[in-house]
Write a structure and sequence with these properties.
3 domains; four-stranded antiparallel sheet; D-amino Acid Aminotransferase, Chain A, domain 1; 13 helices; alpha+beta
Length: about 325
């Protein structure tokens, strides 16, 4: 369902959720916990403004007991990071038979795992930066030559963290080994990618399968940071939003197509956000798919939806309605 059709049917869609107890699941135990709670509070307020029954459920640790206790009919899942973005909570909700927003177990697990998603992108012909995957059991000495072949600078990322946690740019070989050794102790498996200099862009996707569509592309310009890191993402005034992104028309459309394909090949459902970089020569590189993108005041997806004609409350209702879209 596209936006125009959704707005035309808005009242009828709203009636589907009358009398339903909607649990907004957020929090968790990851480094993104506080951001998840901010997203959860914003969504909870939006659902209440829609005149629907909602319960904010901030998960501390035992998500099984906390979800069972609340006796919800529908779950709006908005964790960032583990255990809610990697498929664990989704699997539990499947067992309970509780419908939920967003992607299922497989897409959530694949989207969270940068190794798996990169392999899927490469197999699907989606352009992505060249990289070296370093498993915790591998000797770093055997990987350094592969990394050197990428050319510097490179960017080091934990395999399964979000919000740019643990991400660092390395400009020469001198400090690489020491940095990787430290990162492996904290995060385990790491992905080292060729650093692509260019415009940082992100494309929100709404819908499922053939019904999915791309929102306007957003360009992100960190004001004082070298790249779009955790501080730039969640600190007001640290990032300039340019929407639509200032790209040649053909590049803009191609970026939307690649982003939509990334959403589809991972079999994402309902909504996602696809992060990418467009090089100075207008080459597109897809970086990752966020299956549970941020929904805070400073988040990208709500800004893109607003540009497309959806208020924050209507975006929340649109996402809720995608629960009933089984098209793949």
């Amino acid at each position: 369902m596209k936006i125009r059709e959704f707005l035309r049917k808005r009242y009828k869609i709203l009636q589907k959720f009358r009398g339903k107890r909607i649990g907004v699941l957020c929090g968790g135990t990851s480094g993104e916990r506080e951001v998840s709670i901010r997203s959860g509070n914003k969504i909870f307020s939006a659902i209440k403004k829609l005149g629907l029954e909602a319960k904010l459920i901030i998960i501390e640790g035992d998500f099984v007991g906390e979800i069972l206790k609340e006796k919800i009919d529908i779950a709006f899942v908005i964790f960032h990071g583990k255990p809610g973005e990697d498929g664990k909570v989704q699997g539990f909700l499947d067992l309970l038979g509780i419908p939920y927003t967003g992607s299922g177990v497989l897409a959530s697990a694949c989207g969270m795992n940068k190794f798996i998603s990169k392999k899927i992108f490469m197999a699907s012909g989606i352009p992505t930066p060249p990289g070296v995957m370093i498993y915790r059991y591998e000797k770093l000495s055997e990987k350094l030559k592969e990394i050197e072949k990428l050319g510097f600078p490179v960017i080091v990322k934990p395999k399964d963290e979000g919000s740019s946690l643990g991400v660092e740019i390395v400009k020469n070989i001198k400090n690489l080994k020491e940095l990787i050794d430290a990162k492996r102790k904290s995060y385990g498996d790491l992905l080292v990618e060729k650093y692509i200099k260019g415009k940082i862009v992100t494309t929100g996707i709404l819908g499922t399968g053939k019904n999915a569509f791309a929102l306007p592309v957003l360009e992100l310009k960190p004001v004082r940071r070298e790249f779009y890191d955790y501080f730039a993402k969640y600190t007001e005034g640290e990032t300039e939003f340019i929407i639509p992104a200032e790209l040649p028309t053909n590049v803009y459309k191609e970026l939307q197509e690649h982003s939509l394909m990334a959403h589809r090949v991972l079999e994402c459902r309902g909504f996602s956000r696809v992060d990418a970089v467009v090089s100075d020569t207008n080459e597109i590189f897809i970086l990752e798919v966020n299956t549970l993108p941020g929904m805070t005041d400073l988040s990208d997806l709500p800004a893109e939806a607003k540009k497309a004609g959806l208020s924050y409350e209507d975006l929340v209702l649109f996402i809720l309605n995608t629960i009933f879209d089984e098209t793949t």
